[in-house]
Each structure stands twice: as structure tokens, then as C-alpha cells.
Inverse folding.
């Protein structure tokens, strides 16, 4: 795969301050496919200084012109969509059809949505005798994960640019190649020098330096709750704005009236998507006791179909982590009805699609985010019991409810402590706000709510 041997700062590729590199490994066969610079705190400082220098000019750029640059960026991404998909497949292990349909197509849609929002968003309004003005928060430090490597980049960078902010991006070290491709697209789209900057590197080095830098006004982070706590503490010490999209343990609640076969099959597909490496995956399936055994049989049969459809996990550490959770589920008394901890292939970081039955709410696999193709199935006695189980974790990122009547599902969904709920298989909406309750995060991404995260408000009284 194509890899730059430099970092992108102030509109140009330049050598990193140090000589260390990060090798990029194809998780399907463990072959090295490229290497990128391991950026240092000095590189981050250079990038932040470039972003600060570019901030006044970009913030003063009319929204229509910012929208035009974002539209141009979307067009470049469209032209390079095949290359995007191939790159993500190589460094993440995602099957190519999924990379084409999700890893390439969704970021393009999100970039297009912000091109439209930048042109139509109301940045100023009259409120009584005041003019309320929204202006860019400043320099954004964006730290993105590997599971949806381009989507998460676009979901942060596009609204930040639409708001008039400048950005320093530190992408995940496992998937830096598509971030480099994105930097090329930004350059080709004519975004002014310094408005977007890219520093590849390790989280504890480049990521921490970016979060701590006094020249960064907002840190936007997507990743684990543990790292989110650290970034929140760093930002809190500096009274710095922060947006955190963290872990999840989402409940898929199948009410007794639902079409059971459809609910189970869609639920299994949701968990297996992206090899289970999705923070919003419905990893807990809640079924009424009278239909539970039927649901378990359906889920086991559905999971078996994914053995040759899903890709590997991103790296060996994740593979061992997920296999450890499967072993713990067995040790705590859950019943394996599909898959298991054994690696299905000799090379690569593969984990079998796995389904547990007889899971109780207190089990580790029902409480902790596994981040692999593992489904936990739980019984409930009645609707109040289902609600107690659904809300009974520290997370609250997403979820689903199924019922014969939409009104019944909506009534239940309104009582769930979570940021987003799909009703009877509702489709993804790139304009709807996405983010969590409780330890799933702070703030929202996507749509107008995502744009608002990158703005601060000023009132002028007359």
C-alpha cells in the first residue's frame, strides 16, 4: 500500500522530528504492508502552531466558501472511493464489499452533509435586544480510532472545518494509511495550508501531547472509556472543551409481539458487522422467557452463516482480548451455542462468530465491552425486567427495540438510558446526532448537533 514517510503540516508533507516508524500490518495474514512516522511531541507542537496561525483566516472565511471546500473534499473522496475501500481492507481486514458499502460510502455521505450544513447553518440570530453569535471554538485536536478509520476522521474534521476551526489529527496507529489518503484529499480539495494537519504516532506519545497542548482549544476523542477518562482529566485540568465518544454495551430488546425471526437475524448481523468492532453494536439480545429457546436456536443458526463472511480483528492484542472474554463467559456459566475461543485460522487475527445463551445480567460478558463478534443472549420476565436489564450497565450509547406496533417500541425506547435507539431495524441516518449517556461519552457527532460541538456562543446586547 502507498504510505508517506512524512507528516502533513501546513499544507505539505515533511519529515517527522524523529526516526522511529510504525509498521502497518494486514490483520488477515500478519504481513507488513507499510510504515508511517511515529510522530513526537515536537511534531505535534509544530502542527498545532500551524493550525493556530491558520485559524484567523479560516475562521473569517465566509461559510459559503467553507462549504465549497467541503463539497470539493466530498468529490475527491468519491473519485477515490475504490482506493479508500482497498486501503481499509488492507489495514483493518474488513471484507472488501463491507469496506465499499460502509468504510468508503458513509464518510462520503457525512462529508456531503457538512458541505450542505456549512452553507445553511444559522451562525447568528436575534434574541430580544441581543445578537447571539456562534463562532469557532479554535484549534481542534482530533484523536480517532481504528474500527471505522475514515468515518471517524470525517465525523470530526468535516464539522470542525464547517464551523471555522482548524484541526490537528492523530489517527489510530493500526490504520494510518487511510488517514494519509484523507490528507491527500484535503490538499486536493484546496483547503488552505495549516487548516488541516496530520501527525501519525502512538497514543501515549503523540495523542497525549495533542490532548495536553495549551494551543488546542477542544479535544475530540473516540475510543475506549479508559482512555477517555484520561483525556477528560487532562482537559479538565486546563478547563478545555472536550467531546468523547466512548464504549458501549447496547441492548437489543425484542418485545413479545415482535417478528422474532427478523429481530434475531438483524440483531446477529448487527453484532457481526465489522467483525464486532463497533462501539454501538447490539451485543446484548434481550428476549422474553416464553420465546427465548426459539430465539437462541435462530441466533445460533444465523451466526454460523458469518463464519466465512467476517474479517479478522485488527491486531493480535484485540484477538487475545476477545478470546479471553469468550473463555471468561464459559467459566462464569454461560452456554456456548455458536463459535468459541479457538482461533479458526492459523494465520491472522481471526475470531469465530460466537453466541452465548443463558447469560445473566451480572456476568462479565453482559457488562463489559468485548469489541468482537460475540453476542450475549439474556432472558427477561416482563417489560419492567427488560428495562432494568437494558439500563443496567455503565454504558448508554445505542440500542434497538422490536415490537409489532411501532408505538409500543417507541414507548419502551423512550425509557432507555441511551443516546440512540433503532426502532424495528431503523436505518442509519448521517444527520441524526450520535453519542452516549453515562460512561459512553460526552457530546454528539453528526448533523447539526455535531457541528455545534465545534462552536462557542457570544451574546451582543444592544
Amino acid at each position: 500500500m502507498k504510505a508517506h514517510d512524512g507528516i502533513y503540516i501546513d499544507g505539505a508533507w515533511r519529515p517527522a522530528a524523529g526516526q522511529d516508524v510504525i509498521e502497518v500490518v494486514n490483520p488477515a495474514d500478519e504481513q507488513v504492508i507499510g510504515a508511517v512516522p511515529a510522530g513526537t511531541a515536537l511534531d505535534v507542537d509544530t502542527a498545532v502552531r500551524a493550525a493556530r496561525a491558520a485559524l484567523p483566516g479560516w475562521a473569517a472565511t465566509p461559510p459559503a466558501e467553507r462549504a465549497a471546500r467541503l463539497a470539493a473534499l466530498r468529490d475527491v473522496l468519491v473519485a477515490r472511493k475504490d482506493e479508500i475501500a482497498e486501503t481499509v481492507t488492507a489495514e483493518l481486514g474488513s471484507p472488501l464489499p463491507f469496506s465499499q458499502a460502509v468504510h468508503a460510502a458513509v464518510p462520503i455521505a457525512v462529508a456531503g452533509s457538512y458541505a450542505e450544513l456549512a452553507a445553511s447553518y444559522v451562525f447568528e440570530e436575534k434574541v430580544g435586544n441581543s445578537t447571539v453569535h456562534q463562532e469557532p471554538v479554535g484549534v481542534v485536536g482530533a484523536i480517532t480510532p481504528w474500527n471505522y478509520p475514515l468515518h471517524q476522521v470525517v465525523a470530526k474534521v468535516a464539522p470542525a472545518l464547517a464551523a471555522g476551526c482548524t484541526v490537528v489529527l492523530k489517527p489510530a496507529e493500526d490504520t494510518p494509511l487511510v488517514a494519509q489518503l484523507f490528507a491527500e484529499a484535503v490538499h486536493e480539495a484546496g483547503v488552505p495550508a495549516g487548516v488541516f494537519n496530520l501527525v501519525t504516532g502512538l497514543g501515549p506519545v503523540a495523542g497525549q501531547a495533542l490532548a495536553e497542548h495549551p494551543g488546542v482549544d477542544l479535544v475530540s476523542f473516540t475510543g475506549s472509556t479508559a482512555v477517555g477518562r484520561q483525556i477528560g482529566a487532562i482537559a479538565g485540568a486546563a478547563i478545555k472543551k472536550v467531546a468523547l465518544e466512548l464504549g458501549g454495551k447496547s441492548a437489543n430488546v425484542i418485545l413479545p409481539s415482535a417478528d422474532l425471526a427478523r429481530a434475531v437475524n438483524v440483531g446477529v448481523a448487527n453484532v457481526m458487522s465489522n467483525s464486532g468492532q463497533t462501539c454501538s453494536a447490539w451485543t446484548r439480545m434481550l428476549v422474553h422467557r416464553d420465546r427465548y429457546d426459539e430465539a437462541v436456536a435462530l441466533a445460533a443458526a444465523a451466526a454460523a452463516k458469518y463464519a466465512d463472511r467476517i474479517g479478522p480483528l485488527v491486531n493480535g492484542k484485540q484477538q487475545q482480548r476477545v478470546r479471553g472474554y469468550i473463555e471468561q463467559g464459559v467459566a462464569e456459566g454461560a452456554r456456548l451455542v455458536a463459535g468459541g475461543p479457538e482461533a479458526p485460522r492459523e494465520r491472522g487475527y481471526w475470531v469465530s462468530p460466537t453466541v452465548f445463551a443463558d447469560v445473566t445480567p451480572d456476568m462479565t460478558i453482559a457488562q463489559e465491552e468485548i469489541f468482537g463478534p460475540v453476542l450475549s443472549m439474556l432472558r427477561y420476565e416482563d417489560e419492567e425486567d427488560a428495562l432494568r436489564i437494558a439500563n443496567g450497565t455503565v454504558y448508554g450509547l445505542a440500542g434497538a427495540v422490536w415490537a409489532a406496533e411501532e408505538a409500543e417500541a417507541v414507548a419502551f425506547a423512550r425509557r432507555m438510558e441511551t443516546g440512540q435507539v433503532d426502532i424495528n431495524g431503523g436505518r442509519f441516518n448521517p444527520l441524526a446526532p450520535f453519542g452516549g449517556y453515562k460512561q459512553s461519552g460526552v457530546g454528539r457527532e453528526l448533523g447539526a448537533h455535531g457541528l455545534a460541538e465545534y462552536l462557542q456562543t457570544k451574546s451582543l446586547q444592544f
